[in-house]
Design goal:
The structure is a homotrimer. Chain A is 15% helix and 29% strand. The first copy, chain A, has a twelve-stranded mixed sheet with strand order 6-9-12-15-18-23-26-29-32-35-38-39, with helices on one face. Chain A has a ten-stranded parallel sheet with strand order 7-10-13-16-19-24-27-30-33-36, with no helix packed on it. A ten-stranded parallel sheet of chain A has the order 8-11-14-17-22-25-28-31-34-37, with no helix packed on it. By secondary structure, chain A is an alpha/beta fold. Chains A and C meet through α3 and α5 of A and β20, β21, α4 and α5 of C.
Chain lengths: 332, 332, 332
């Protein structure tokens, strides 16, 4: 594809070299001969020379760059679009393939694909163009919207509701029982977990994620929220819209998380905690109680700047202890 | 069902309104018109008014509550039972369904269900009424007791022994190889993991949990212990009875955990650590060495109260440093 | 097997009792009558007496031990070999079993086994003697080397390359999409993840591990590296050779990890961090930036000894605060 044509399709403007042939798209670390690449910082410009790149997306024209430049207001977005143009193909509609087990009363939209080894129970409905990969289990009465992709070996248990344009990566479990017991007479009695899970439109769920069903009512993942791998979401949790939840986060039962919240990797959120809209929590932190909009770190969390300062002194504690001892001796 | 009848079945006593028709059971957050609900604190009583609840389980009669009250000594237990009465149905016995792969010599009890896409190897025995969902793998010689539920896409490897009334949630792996190597000549040589796993009666295992087989001997999960999602249990670990292990806990090889132990979310337990009966470890803590009965927090753990006090000062470290500096200047 | 013969096969030397019959091999915790066992410390010698062990592997002859001793320069390695001799059998070559779904153009080497319920897509190549257990998904164009074992319910997505003698434990996912989005116009737009994953020879990957494919280029796991259960490896991560990555570690996108690195359980490594050859990072630590060869702990990490000292004072913070207050009062 010529650079001119590609630039147009990704909403960018070529400064020169519009006739150059682009063979692929790649990040600066893996660029090959003839690729369009992306420059996120002028400091990296020297690496372009030896890379073989045919052209580069930039935010503003750079005098130091010798290959054709394509200017985009949001360079990373333009790069994402270029990857899409070059590599993303619609999944073919293959229908229900032999070796799949689909209940007679399941309702499948048009252009749905169900791969072999998948199991679709009674009362399920699946929207147009959704793809179900091998090894997927879909329990009774589950509803899945349009243009979803359910990767291999995913389990979606009975009654779960999934919106449109949702992707669930391999090995994830949606609708497992919440972790609820009553301790009585020396043992733990199970509290039946009879609620559901609602996953709204445009959510992406990573691999080996677990989302528990509610005790009663629903566990909810709001529209456009993105969840990384190996995340745990407890029963009755409510997550708002457009959140980003990085890998290995654990969210305890009945926690409430607002819109546009960012939780770093391995964060833990205690049962019944509340995190308001727009909060950002640093990796490995622990959240209890209620967080107002802000940036937080620590176990349990404090405001991020406060944590940075405390953390800086932490290393010097042995020295502080020695100085204190010296003062005490002087005063004796 | 009339309130009178329901109360009797859950071991509770209606104060009034015994003839009221109960349509469902739900927590206060998701209660609908005509539901029986639960009040865990009198402070929440105002929320009852607008909820549409038809009746409420309480520990003691409350003057401020205007709808029929049902008194139970253990309200949460009564609530759990009410959920059971209303929503929990026995799973139908469907036998070995077409599309399942079951070895000729596997011994299945009466009323067993094996869904399609499951694989049961040679020498397996499965007790009465146990249900095996789709996508489950059961390796050679595995023994599973009565009334178990093995959810979809679970892997139970060769030789594992599972008691009765055990539930294993979707995606979990029982009997994977322990993580054991000898470093020699610049590389890691595998120590064959030839032991087994024993899961005793009434254990519940969450989704995407991994329990490694022992090097030799057995990894053991004791009777009545409940394990949440995404927990890792290393080789040769011994876990006692009636423990509660919250999500994303990791337990290193050969650790020994007593009875009635509670491990909070994301706790780590080092290889060969010992945790005595009745210990409680706060979320995100790290355990090394030996813990005597008590409550602990921190990395590594200290007694919880000590940790609370240290944590309180931690935030004030920059201030302490400043005050120390001022004292030093005064004395100079 | 007689002790003499076994000793020869494991590269060890019997001090006496070469004619003793050995019935099995087991660690000291699970030794049975007639077993060969291992003594890792002279302190444990008294336990041998009551154990029923027939012989014991030691590094140097011990006067206090009354049963036949076998001397090995690397006792644990000799023990591993003894387990192998007694218990490890080659997996039988069963071919493509009925109920497996294998694309017509997939290329399978000689002695390959594909169990039922597995799905092998178009363009896949699988090396000699490799075993594919039930419930495995292998996507388009995947290449797997010789003598690999892919345990049940594993997902290997399109284009992934796996070397020889690689073991992947149950439930793991290799080649899931990296977690990459551009935030624009109030929502997160997906950056297509069109790169691959390369797993080199002799790697072992635990259960429920997730390894994301690169955005462009490859995520790489180097030769001989061993990965425990529930580990997350982000997109474009490069891991060197002969590393040991303990359970529940999370490695952020584009991190670079050298050779012979040891990451303890539940460690987190931030995006773009670099860990040089030979580093050791203590359990539960958090790595940012660049680590030079050394031993580290803490969140974020500092040199391990520094951390030990700071951690020791941490417990005494309330006392330090009190002493500081007393000094201030004296000086007033």
């Amino acid at each position: 594809m010529r650079l001119k044509e590609l630039a147009e399709r990704i909403g960018a403007r070529p400064l020169s070299g519009g006739e150059v042939e682009i063979r692929g798209v790649a990040g600066l670390d893996s660029v090959g001969e003839g690729d369009l690449t992306l420059l996120t910082s002028e400091k990296l410009a020297p690496r372009l020379k030896t890379s073989g790149a045919a052209a580069v997306i930039v935010k503003e024209p750079l005098a130091s760059v010798e290959i054709p430049q394509v200017v985009a207001e949001e360079p990373l977005l333009a790069f994402a679009r270029a990857l899409e143009v070059f590599y993303v193909r619609p999944r073919p509609a293959l229908g229900v393939m032999p070796g799949a087990s689909v209940a007679d009363d399941a309702m499948l939209g048009s252009g749905v694909t169900v791969y072999p080894m998948s199991y679709i129970a009674s009362g399920v409905s699946i929207g147009d163009r959704t793809v179900i990969y091998p090894g997927v289990f879909i329990g009774e009465g589950v509803r899945i919207g349009e243009d979803c992709v359910i990767h291999p070996n995913v389990t979606i248990r009975e009654g779960v509701e999934i919106g449109s344009r949702v992707t669930v990566h391999a090995g994830s479990v949606i609708g497992s029982d919440g972790f609820g017991y009553v301790f009585s007479g020396g043992r733990h009695h199970k509290i039946p977990q009879v609620g559901g899970v609602v996953v709204e439109d445009d959510v992406e769920i990573g691999a080996c994620v677990t989302i528990d069903r509610a005790t009663t009512g629903n566990t909810v993942v709001g529209e456009g929220t993105k969840i990384d791998n190996l995340v745990q979401i407890g029963h009755n949790v409510k997550i708002g819209r457009h959140c980003v939840i990085v890998a290995q986060v654990g969210i305890g039962g009945s926690a409430v998380i607002g819109d546009d919240v960012m939780l770093g990797g391995q964060v833990g959120v205690a049962d019944h905690a509340t995190i308001e809209d727009g909060c950002r929590v640093g990796a490995k932190s622990g959240v209890m109680g209620r967080l107002k909009r802000g940036v937080y770190s620590g176990i349990p969390v404090m405001p991020h700047l406060k944590w940075l300062r405390a953390r800086a002194v932490l290393e010097r504690l042995p020295e502080l202890q020695r100085r204190l001892r010296e003062l005490e001796q002087k005063l004796r």
